[in-house]
Amino acid sequence: MAGRALILLAVAVLVTVTVLVVRSWSRRRVGGLDIDGAARLWSALEASPDGRPSLVVFSTPSCTACRTAQSPAVEAVARRFGQALRILRVDLSTRPAVGQAFRVLTAPTTVVLSGDGRIASFNHGFAPADQLEAQVGAARSSRR
Q1: Of 65, 53, 67, residue with least CA distance to 132
Q2: How many whole angstroms separate alpha carbon 55 and alpha carbon 98?
Q3: d(CA 71, CA 126)
Q4: Bridge partner list, 57
């Protein structure tokens, strides 16, 4: 019995360490985007900041989660904020350079940009509507 408990403890520690390492790596990776500068990201998007927060939504035509989960969540956020939020959709199959500029690892990915164009939040994988709403709300309040 004690042997099983030790094995379970070792697995729990290993999982915890792995999660912490991956989170740290992801933070450093996204942090590098801030160092590289927002201008390069906006250039890749072929757009410029307009004072409103922007939600950049990365997807591909073959991404089931993009169509069935992420798209409805983005539409809910768009309804909630209306014209106070700009939605920029990027199809990674036709615009891979934009995904490379943002260091996108997977579809779906969402990025919230503040009104002045800086990265406010970065979500690898599916992000639910309530999470996106909170991130956009924080990006809106940070400019005041």
Answers
A1: 53
A2: 14
A3: 10
A4: 89, 110
- Among residues 106, 58, 55, 52, which one has the least CA distance to residue 83? 52
pLDDT value at 35 more than 50? no
Q: What is the 3-state secondary structure (H, E, C) of 71-111?
A: HHHHHHHHHHHHHHCEEEEEECCCCHHHHHHHCCCCCCEEE
Comparing C-alpha atoms, which of 92, 91, 99, 101 is closest to residue 33?
A: 101
Residue 24 has what pLDDT? 61
Angle between helices 129-142 and 71-81 (to 10 degrees): 40
What are 56-115's pLDDT values in tens digits? 999 999 999 999 999 999 999 999 999 999 999 999 999 999 999 999 999 999 999 999
